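Q: Structure for this?
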Amino acid sequence: MKNWIIEKTGFDQQEIAANGNRFLCGNGYMGIRGTLEEYGKEQLCAINLAGLYDKVGEGWREPVNAPNPLYTFLCVDGVKYVLPQSETICHEQRLDYRHGLVYRKTVFKTAQGTVTITTEHFAHMEKRHLIGMMYYITSDYDAEVELYTGIDADVWDINGPHYDEVNMNLDENTLVVQAVTHEKKEKVVVAEYGVLNGICEQAYEKSEKKFLRKICFQCRKNKLAYLEKLAVVYTGNDCGDPLEDAKKDLAESVNMGYSFMRKKQIDCWEELWKNSEVEITGDKDAECALNYSLYHLLSIAPFHAKSQSIPARGLSGQTYKGAVFWDTEMFMLDFFLNSHPKAAKALLQYRIDTLPGAQEKARHYGYEGAFYAWESQEGGFDACSDYNVTDVFTGRPMRTYFKDKQVHISAAIVYGIMKYVNRTGDSELLYHGGAETVLECARFYDSLLLQKVHTDVYEIRDVIGPDEYHERVNNNGYTNRMAQYTFEQACILLRQCSKDKRMAEALKEYDIEQIRMRFEDNARKIYIPKPDKEGIVPQFDGYRKLEDTTVEKVRSRLLNEKEYWGGAYGVASDTQIIKQADVVTWMVMFPDDFTAEEKWINWSYYEPRTEHGSSLSACMYSILACSCGKPQEAYPLFLKSAQADLKGGGKEWAGDIYIGGTHPAAAGGAYMTAINGFGGVKIADGQVTAVPQLPESWEKLKFRILYQNQIYEITETKENAEIRKVSCELEEM
Amino acid sequence: MKNWIIEKTGFDQQEIAANGNRFLCGNGYMGIRGTLEEYGKEQLCAINLAGLYDKVGEGWREPVNAPNPLYTFLCVDGVKYVLPQSETICHEQRLDYRHGLVYRKTVFKTAQGTVTITTEHFAHMEKRHLIGMMYYITSDYDAEVELYTGIDADVWDINGPHYDEVNMNLDENTLVVQAVTHEKKEKVVVAEYGVLNGICEQAYEKSEKKFLRKICFQCRKNKLAYLEKLAVVYTGNDCGDPLEDAKKDLAESVNMGYSFMRKKQIDCWEELWKNSEVEITGDKDAECALNYSLYHLLSIAPFHAKSQSIPARGLSGQTYKGAVFWDTEMFMLDFFLNSHPKAAKALLQYRIDTLPGAQEKARHYGYEGAFYAWESQEGGFDACSDYNVTDVFTGRPMRTYFKDKQVHISAAIVYGIMKYVNRTGDSELLYHGGAETVLECARFYDSLLLQKVHTDVYEIRDVIGPDEYHERVNNNGYTNRMAQYTFEQACILLRQCSKDKRMAEALKEYDIEQIRMRFEDNARKIYIPKPDKEGIVPQFDGYRKLEDTTVEKVRSRLLNEKEYWGGAYGVASDTQIIKQADVVTWMVMFPDDFTAEEKWINWSYYEPRTEHGSSLSACMYSILACSCGKPQEAYPLFLKSAQADLKGGGKEWAGDIYIGGTHPAAAGGAYMTAINGFGGVKIADGQVTAVPQLPESWEKLKFRILYQNQIYEITETKENAEIRKVSCELEEM
């Protein structure tokens, strides 16, 4: 297990989609689904591009997949051998998640014997536009082989087609496909160079959307033939002339050669792991699952970008519209803060840069300040629909309120920014838009506040909290507390103005004194629910008057397994059954708001009432359990988070539409559980402390974290935590 | 037509339920559905009792029907002749709605010839417990007849059975049935005395729930046989010993005889019509329909009671739970104020007496003051369910908000009380609970008011206005205006305290000065929507951003003709299509809030967007059209209201459940249209004025109204209105 390999042997058609996520590789610029070389859009093949979106007609706006330069298949003695159609003798897929290398081996049975293909590919971690692939062919007899390889521009989409035009050109021996998106006429260029056994004389074939090399040769018995391939992807998002840049970049890599680039890939990943790896002695399963989760986070992190965030399904395809949710700030950020703060900064810079979009959304709904997108695309465009769910009984779209009433999103941005600043000590982000963002979010909540006339308590009504099964509730505790936090953070920045000229400059548009007093008043008077007589903090006004039942009983009321549990008439809506951690999320984020006893009372109350219908749920329960000294209760929920992509499962299909993908928030949540939960790490006031809460099987837990430009190496046993400052300098990642 | 008769000839099984409403008679104590003598609960036979309710298990609470003493059928030569089973030669039902006399004639074809039965019955308008019936039998040959007549205690219910016990006793020649309700063990006693041809020697039969006389005789060719019957109904609601009172009362009536009681009935109705009748020269259809509507109002008015209101479906049966809605104050009250103010007072006394129920409801929802029941039963118990509609697609109950968010109900009570006081000049009602009721309603709205923090505008959010298709809206104009009105009325009473000792005494529990200042502040600052740039008053915040479409288009989207248009996902919910008059109701109630031009712009905007899915809708549009000088546009909507029960139609069945009944609010609305719309009558500041707006066909309109103890007789032509004070003294009705 700790060999950093995961593998699946045998071919199972049902697993094609799950394997696409399981064996995904990526580098933050792109994600390459773990599909096979011969696969096309039917198998959800995708070179998913970060930050490039397209909208066609009335369809949802969604990310665009690049034409696929890995596309390859072969014919032997005139017969095509491809999965899922052909018969295999054996088949396996493997991932070296230490180095981002994806392998495949398939032995096809042919009329005269067997043909074996073995491949590897990667998305290069240093040269972000580069894809490399090796494709080995052997046969146990002299076989006549036609190898087809090139670029498949017939890309997967859910609401496409996204390319209006696809042009194919041969540039010396390089295949170049240039496609143009529908909405913004953005160019996407893929250039590919591939040679078999070092010989580049080939024939070429163009079909409507495929541009292929056709290489015919005799594969001698037990002799290895190998196709070596390098390709690059560029878009108009990256540079002024993607065609020119693509050609130039590819030529450079070809010059250096596949092996050299592969070596670089390995070195680069080794460097990444230095501050990322988490060692768990005594529990190989957990160690593997956790580091595999971190692999996924590292594969989609914007190391290369100044301003880019991570979608809820990473770079694993079309689902969730490729949009950025609160998942990033709430569940993924911690890992990057602890290991790669520059990536963390890019995540937050994306939010700062999309402030105008958030301001426009606020204005649209009649509010002040910044109301961030629930499903954020480029420029902060909110891809969320007012009708996000389809009624299975009528086929009609159902009015949902995720977009307009899940107002806690803006506070998550503030939380991310302030956490970044406190962890790194880097205030530049604040001076360059960050402080303004915090204030605009505070102004947003200010404009939401209501009070009963002639009273002095401020409320936030008609919202959806983290638990989406209960719509349009009043005084969701989590939401109110996050709004209060936002006011408090804004006040901290406003008070800073008197002694920090750069802050004063950054906030010069505001009437500092007046707005500070107002926000202080808001923070003081906003209604924060307290534990009731039984110690339960009600999730929202009237929550405990709802039917008190069990998840199983509610599930048994389903008339259709695909029906939505929430909305106005869902099976959960009028009950105390919730989708995901809500009050518990509050308790995790603000541990000082409650005593350990209060936390455990609420954990024990809410956990059995939670469906865990979101991958964001389990980790919050497991972190809180740890903070109550209950690591054993935390452990199964931790594993659930850490294995989200390894095991697959979860909801993958809604009718014919694929809604699966990777779960980076669960990955980030598992990391937080390990570090802050089991590891008991607290980082505050210049101090790093750790109080171990290791589960039974864990003998040792070891990891590094960065805090204010200092690396700490923490080694814990059940009894003891050793915190060591590492003297090496922080590399510029 | 002006012969005060309506009739239906021929037998049509489909019309049984509609005829039950059409030929209903009543006297405010009870309503007798216009069914045939041989009918039972399957034909929705009912002696519906005002104010007596029962609840069984989880079923809805609903009114209780008395055992039916009209039950009669005959056998000829050993064969039973009853509808709907037997063959008839001719059949007709008739109603003399001048005198509350219901007739039936049926000629049955028998093996040897024909047998004819002719009947009449009435609910006595003076002796409220008394029912009278004559049942004539003739034959065109010598026929052997067995006549069965007595009391049928197998009563119609929707959520019954309501009687736990049914006891039958013969008391001399009187049949006595005593039944006991399930919930409150209330006694219901029916005593019946019937003789054929003046001979009371008979046999008796008891089946499980029927107690019958069996009378065998030869019906000689062309000789009349006649059954004369008197019966009384008493309940524990009326008196301490219903059995004793029933026997005594019946004996008295039997003593005086059927003919004498019938004469009294006619005299009593003639007296009622003196101040009720509306004469319309030139339009017999309208005249008939309108006076027939008034007949229905007179038949269910609480003339006999000090404190009793009228259910939304009158006394026509089990539907709408026999509950009292805002219909009474808003749509029926005007007729009684103008013609029988003592009945009006009883309607309002019911509300004053149910103040504790309203206060309890407010407390239940966390509010102050009085939140009146949406569906009021005895004691102000709110019979409305949180799940008032069944989803036709899933069969599941749908969460509706009629009960908890239709907050405008309390203002309707205030409106009724203040209108009564202003019209009659009788302040006693205020001194005895009325003023307190007004203040408690104002306190309710006070506790609903919200303001955005740091602003000075008061809002009411999350309500349902009169248009029930749009749930949980903010700042419904009608609701806010009614709340403002409530504050204003409360302030009037509070200011009165300084010069009116009895008022000061009535309100001594309040801090007069403090609460007045607070209500004045509320009235000043509450947000009242204004016409937008196009002159349209938005029904609620964001109304005009909803899809603008047509009623027909919305109807075409139905997947099931019985599906609910409103709720969260109804076909109308996200559109501007509304169920019933909403802004227009506001404009009718507060005519001085808008110019005639503004009214007409809004009429023209909203009318095509209104489904008129409630019988309360059409009359509001027709009154407003009149006030804009458009009587022709008003006329078809007026007829629709006036003919609601005459023509039948409307929604009568929801699956297997009967939801029809009479429509007294439509009747009252038609009356208001005639008097205040076409008649242009305004009553204010001691003055009665009239500006005719007669429709084309109306040559003359003549009616009486009472105002502050003075009868005014108003005679109008298209050009002119003559207002004459009638000198006769007001009788004590």
